[in-house]
Specification:
27 helices, 54% helix, alpha/beta, Alpha-Beta Plaits, six-stranded mixed beta sheet
């Protein structure tokens, strides 16, 4: 007994007749896209037949989840491509008995699956009644019956179900998906300007509530906060965020009373789909948030599953005072400055003191220590241990908190427990598929482990959910660089710079991409731009500049750069890479060993850092990689 999947590329035969070379290239892209997803869901690739896959799964649930992930990945892959370069697939899945011989499979189940696949629409998945009976109520995807279908060479009609994809409801012009939602910053109308934190906090909390509706894709806070105070109309914001529906509103807080207005707008037509006003006590703020999320789902014709409704209605704390302190903590945490993080830690701790069962406050405090650790404003080992304990406490209180799962996954790097880290990231994403940070951090882990196709997929998903975020966009560029897909990385980073040239980080990563591609003069140019934007205090671009100068034979300038970096707060592994370029391998190995002993945050990047490849013949460097459970071969 096995679950059998057939996939097929739509229009492949016709394309092959028109443009054979393009059709062959698309088949190769299709295989690169599908194979990593099969592996993640325990799928065994039995064989490929031209543009088709025959895949076997040990259970029905893995098969349906895999089919959904394949279509989601194909949709994301197609977003920025012209029509002729897009991959279009149909998928059919059946559950039944198979006969295996020499690695191949045959039998009635294989025949049925092959006949069900053509019933799926472009980008769709069809499953049989046998499989539906195994997965109903076990997966957060809706399925609708297409009735009993007569299939060729199958004796009796087979009940077929269509898997409803969350993105299928499109606006009339086909450009914007109304189930892709942006919660815009709520306007503060409070008489006290110090209450602005409450409006920002309400925005962030509403994003979290709407994220619980898994049929909706929800834009991340980082992107929507770009519109705070902006004078743009709904259609313009919708186009920039590629969001078909916008939630906007205002909040007035006075003493323990709040007044909240909210409305849902269709971005393409600026039609108001729903609006309401709430005059409540501060203690009722959670009911207001829940009601808004439920009304948004109702207006967009999304039927909440029981688990989703429970998540939307769940109160994070019974203490209004603790909640207000938590919102202040998040307000300062989002500043990401040393002073802001210090204040955030104080407010999160005060929230915990008022309500020791407030899971989100523990998670917020864990995130604070994690950021302090990466910024170097707190001792790495001490802050990492605190972050781990706090995230574990948050999950002990509320095991369904996606942020806490990601927080705990994030600090596994000091123990190099990548298996546990991956489990936690995947759980975070399962709990909240719209959690951009979870996808972003997971892509970094996959990059360290050289699972580049999966890393690119996760980074693209993070960027789709947080399209205006510098961090997620740069993460995608960095993954492409480490995967040695330099041409793609360069195109992506150039596009980001054209859109917003005033940030240093895209120029920095573009400089690294040029370095990896052997274009050292161009690398120097981009790195100097990054340094000019942020000043020479920015250590990583300065170290990368040293790499390039050394490769160009400008040793004196490279050594001057090294001297400038000595004594600074800089990653020892990055500094070690500069020593490699200067031919000082003993110093380079020493730097890497020191970074390992100090549990330097982000040390996993050494797995693909190009200058350090020269050390892979050194047993001491290989020993560090082995102790970190990282790949030891060569890319």
């Amino acid at each position: 007994m096995a679950a059998i999947m057939f996939t097929d590329m739509v229009g492949y035969t016709a394309l092959g007749q028109r443009n054979e070379s393009l059709s062959l290239a698309l088949v190769e892209e299709h295989r690169k896209l599908v194979r990593p997803i099969l592996a993640r869901h325990n799928g065994r690739e039995v064989k490929t037949m031209g543009d088709a896959f025959l895949v076997e799964f040990p259970n029905a649930l893995d098969a349906v989840r895999c089919a959904y992930d394949i279509q989601r990945a194909a949709r994301e892959f197609n977003i920025s491509l012209p029509d002729e370069r897009r991959i279009h697939m149909r998928i059919g899945v059946h559950l039944g008995d198979v006969v295996e011989s020499d690695g191949d499979i045959s039998g009635d189940a294989v025949n049925v699956a092959s006949r069900v696949e053509p019933l799926a629409e472009d980008g769709g998945v069809c499953i049989t009644g046998e499989l539906y009976g195994q997965v109903r109520n076990k997966i957060d995807l809706r399925m609708s019956s297409l009735g009993a279908k007569a299939l060729k060479n199958v004796a009796s009609p087979v009940e077929v179900y269509k898997v409803e994809m969350p993105w299928e409801s499109q606006v009339a012009d086909g450009d914007l998906d109304v189930r892709r939602v942006a919660v815009l910053p709520f306007v503060s109308l409070s008489p006290d300007p110090n209450d602005e934190y409450f409006a920002d906090g309400l925005t962030e909390e509403l994003i979290d509530r709407v994220c619980q509706v898994k049929e909706l894709a929800v834009i991340a806070r980082t992107s929507v906060m770009n519109y705070k105070g902006a004078k743009k109309n709904a259609s313009q914001i919708g186009r920039e965020l590629r969001a078909g529906a916008l939630v906007e509103g205002s909040v007035r807080k006075a003493s323990n009373k709040i007044r909240v207005t909210a409305q849902l707008i269709r971005a393409d037509t600026e039609e108001h789909l729903w609006s309401s006003k709430y005059d409540r006590d501060m203690a009722d703020v959670f009911e207001v948030q829940s009601d808004i999320a439920e009304r948004v789902a109702e207006a967009l014709k999304v039927q909440l599953l029981p688990a989703e409704r429970e998540a939307v209605q769940r109160k994070p704390t019974e203490s209004a005072a603790a909640y207000a302190l938590y919102l202040k903590g998040r307000y300062y945490w989002n500043e990401r400055t040393e002073e802001g993080l210090r204040k955030a830690a104080e407010y999160f701790q005060k929230a915990i003191d008022l309500d020791p069962a407030f899971a989100r406050a523990y998670s917020g405090l864990a995130d604070t220590y994690s950021i302090m650790r990466f910024q170097g404003s707190a001792p790495a080992r001490e802050s990492g241990a605190k972050a781990r304990a706090l995230a574990e406490k948050a999950l002990e209180i509320d095991g369904s908190l996606a942020e806490a799962c990601a927080s705990l996954a994030f600090v596994q790097d000091d123990a190099f427990n990548w298996e546990e880290s991956e489990r936690l990231y995947r759980k975070a994403i399962e709990l909240n598929p719209s959690y951009a940070t979870g996808h972003f951090w997971y892509s970094i882990l996959l990059t360290w482990l050289w699972r580049f196709d999966e890393a690119v997929e996760e980074a693209r998903r993070a960027e789709e959910l947080d399209p205006l975020s510098q961090a997620t966009s740069i993460a995608l560029g960095q993954v492409l660089v480490y995967a040695r897909r330099n041409d793609e990385a360069i195109r992506h980073l150039q596009e980001r710079i054209r859109a917003d040239p005033g940030f240093a980080s895209p120029h920095f990563i573009l400089g690294v991409a040029y370095f990896y591609g052997g274009m050292y003069e161009k690398a120097v140019e981009e790195l100097r731009v990054a340094i000019s934007i942020e000043g020479r205090s920015l250590s990583r671009p300065l170290a990368a500049l040293g790499w390039c100068l050394a490769r160009l034979g400008r040793e004196r300038e490279a050594r001057e750069t090294l001297e400038e970096l000595k004594g600074r707060k800089i990653s020892k592994s990055v500094l070690g890479a500069l020593y490699v370029e200067l031919g000082e391998r003993e110093e380079a190995v020493r730097c890497v060993q020191e970074a390992f002993e100090a549990r330097e945050p982000g040390l996993g990047w050494i797995s693909g850092m190009l200058p350090l490849d020269a050390l892979r013949s050194d047993a001491r460097f290989v020993a560090v990689l082995e102790r970190m459970n990282l790949p030891t071969g060569r890319l």
